[in-house]
TrEMBL record:
This is Alpha-D-phosphohexomutase C-terminal domain-containing protein. It comes from Gossypium mustelinum. One of its GO terms (biological process) is UDP-N-acetylglucosamine biosynthetic process. Residues 81-160, 164-204 form the Phosphoacetylglucosamine mutase AMG1 domain. One of its GO terms (molecular function) is phosphoacetylglucosamine mutase activity. InterPro entries: A-D-PHexomutase_a/b/a-I/II/III, A-D-PHexomutase_C, A-D-PHexomutase_C_sf, AMG1_III. Residues 224-286 form the Alpha-D-phosphohexomutase C-terminal domain. Pfam families: AMG1_III, PGM_PMM_IV. It comes from the Eukaryota.
Length: 299
């Protein structure tokens, strides 16, 4: 390469690096992932924001969380994460076919029914899945990844929209609007935020509405999973050890999954209290470390 061109590319790379470092610092302590994982009120939220419905996106705007600070004296807040947002969407969509299925006298029409399901990964909170099932929704789990979720969702039949009637005339456009608003190709926090606000406005709501652990291992490929990545089938004996630990905790749920990019095993733990979830995650992290690690576990 010509010396002058080489120098130009070097300078360009330097300035790009400077800009990238600035972006990282600029987004520190405010993103959706920070709020959800660290459970800390983001920077810029003060006493004037108490009681307000707030939202945070992550750096590439494919994740969204809502939260509300309840008091001036506390830095604690109420978190509405993706599982709760999904439940809000499911409830809203579930109501519309019910309206369409009614006849002119507002009585259910058994000849016009639609099946509605929700597709989640195993990382979805188990309580949200149970809640959706109690509402009569079909809940299906897939491996992690948009392609798996989309493939399963695409297997559902199209909903046949019913005809006239004042409430039914409103319900049909609502369903069509949801389909147009939601980005069906990729995670899109902006479209999700708009849908949350639209649903809350339609319902007249003006007020606001688990634990991960990482273990460094020698080879992440030593772990193989099945059943939507919730059951480890390799190495032998590790799943039995995890199950034996999990049953010690009320409403305990735990599984492991290898990272796709580094030699790290992700431990997901759920329990009836935060303390129990912390303890379960720590115990299973030690199991993973014993089977696959270097003798020390990290959280």
């Amino acid at each position: 390469m010509h010396p002058s061109l080489n120098q130009q590319f070097t300078e360009l790379g330097y300035w790009l690096l400077q800009d990238w470092c600035y972006i990282l610092v600029f987004n520190g302590g405010v993103g959706a992932d920070y709020v959800q994982k660290e459970k800390v009120v983001p920077r810029g939220i003060g006493s004037n924001d108490v009681g307000l419905r707030c939202a945070r996106l992550d750096g590439d705007a494919d994740r969204l969380v809502y939260f509300s600070v309840s008091t001036n004296s506390s830095r604690k807040f109420d978190l509405v994460d993706g599982d709760k947002i999904l439940s809000l969407f499911a409830l809203f969509i579930k109501e519309q076919p019910s309206i369409l299925a009614k006849d002119g006298n507002e009585k259910p029409n058994n000849n016009s029914q639609a099946r509605l399901g929700v597709v989640q990964t195993a990382y979805a909170n188990g309580a949200s899945a149970n809640y959706l099932k109690q509402l009569g929704l079909e809940v299906i789990f897939t491996p992690t990844g948009v392609k798996h979720l989309h493939e399963k969702a695409a297997q559902n039949n199209e909903l046949g929209l019913a005809s006239e009637g004042s409430e039914r005339q409103k319900a049909a456009p609502r369903l069509l609007s949801v389909r147009k608003l939601i980005n069906q190709a990729v995670g899109d926090a902006l479209s999700c935020l708009l849908l949350v606000e639209a649903i809350l406005q339609q319902k007249g709501c003006r007020d606001h509405i688990y634990l991960f652990s990482l273990v460094k291992v020698v080879y992440r490929t030593a772990v193989a999973t099945t059943n939507a990545e919730t059951v480890a089938i390799r190495p032998p004996g590790i799943q039995e050890a995890i199950d034996a630990e999990t049953v010690k905790y009320p409403k305990g749920r735990c599984f492991i999954r290898p990272s796709g990019t580094e030699d790290v095993i992700r431990v997901y733990a759920e329990a009836s209290t935060q303390e129990a979830a912390d303890s379960l995650a720590s115990s299973v992290a030690k199991i993973v470390d014993r089977f696959l690690g270097f003798g020390t576990s990290q959280q």
